[in-house]
Amino acid sequence: MAKQAEYVRYTIRVPADLYERIKVAAGEKSVNAEIVEALELAYPILRPQQQNLRLFHFQWYAGEWYAIDEDSWARFRAGDIPSHLARRMQPKNNHFIVAVVDEEVGLVNLISHNYHLKDGSCVLAADDYLSDQEKADYAWLMKSPTATEDDEQRLKSLREKMHPAFALPSAAVPKLKDILKGLASEDALDQLLNQIGSVEGE
Description:
- This protein is α+β, with helices and mostly antiparallel strands.
- The chain has helices spanning 16-26, 31-42, 70-77, 83-86, 132-143, 149-162, 172-180, 186-196, and strands at residues 53-61, 64-68, 94-102, 106-118, 121-124, 168-169, 198-199.
- It has one domain.
- The protein is 40% helix and 22% strand.
- The strands form two sheets. It has a five-stranded antiparallel beta sheet with strand order 2-1-3-4-5. A two-stranded parallel ribbon has the order 6-7.
- Helix 1 (16-26) crosses helix 2 (31-42) and helix 5 (132-143) crosses helix 6 (149-162).
- The radius of gyration is 17 Å and the shape is globular.
């Protein structure tokens, strides 16, 4: 399991129209969770020399990975699901991978996404791992302007509970390794995939 991040609280002001767009993109997630996810994609952990980054997006469907262009991924993340992605989606466990590649050193990160379809929209599969009370706690903790040490521990435990939602189907792992081979050493690639984890079935 990947090491859980430590969190700091930082308040920002954004234009009202941008805030509304973020709310729409977030769907059932909190606005804070949507912003954090977007920032994680925009600012992966890098060594100072890793400036020339490219992102590659893949969708898992019917036993195969399909490459997704950046425009389609941006539309999908904004809540407008392109038809070619929608055709490859099922009610539950729609897995996506974002591969972060430095042009000089190769693969530096893999980011796993998993969504369910609900009323024509995508919702986080991680919600399945939380009770209604835990979802409410998580939403409150993500938006709370103040936090005690107990609050931080509670948030950490909820994140650990949600982590299995991002594990890949076991059949998807070797096929993803085939796609990404040459971008990282086998050991480095295995380490990134082990952090995500895998599950049988799906």
